Amino acid sequence: IPFRGVYEGESPLWFRHVEIKEEFFNFILKHRIKLVFLCGRWAMYLKGYYKFEGRTLPPFPLCDNESSSCDNYSLEKNIVVFKRGLERTIRFFQERKIKLVVLLDVPEIGWDVPEVLAKKSLLEYWGIHVRSKYLPPTVDEYYERQKEVIALFENARRKYGITLIRTYTPLFGNSRYARLFDESGCLLYRDDDHLSTHGAFFVARNLPELETILKSFLQKGSPTEKSF
Known about the structure:
By secondary structure, the protein is mainly alpha-helical. The chain is 48% helix and 7% strand. It has helices spanning 12-30, 42-47, 75-95, 113-125, 139-160, 169-172, 197-205, 208-218, 223-226; strands at 7-8, 35-39, 62-63, 99-103, 163-165. The strands form two sheets. A three-stranded parallel beta sheet has the order 2-4-5, with helices on both faces.
């Protein structure tokens, strides 16, 4: 989770992740970067993995130095630690006059999109009709999954004035289900949650607010900003 001072459970691996995150924050300061995009698999941090992918993977507890324990998971405790970590991170950037833009998560599909679709295509090529249980999430399922996340970021937007980008909107459009292909039939996902390179460009091209932010930032005219 890309928040300062937040780690997941008590595994030594997670403590190493905290060290790595500090290296990134130090890099931002060293190179005087003035625009930062913050992204993550937000609902996973609060609730664990999604759908079929997470059948045997329990949620993990979020902890920080203010937590009394990292032994047990609860959504309520994770929300508290998430909120503290988010506000701690926002203050870090704002105190240094660094603009922060948060990307809300794209729809989690919950199953490996290329693998499942390839198997389905192969079976159909052999003349075997398959009625698949693998469906992309609906817009209602997305909001149910993300409701706590969206509430936390909306509160932070009102309190601190951060910018939110709803990266999920191009992936629903006017459809009830999250889309897996663009208009030309190219796949938008490379696994259960990550966009393919093509999918990332598809989303970026269909987010006019992203272009507005970049143009506004680049027009400020400092040498560092021009080289971004």
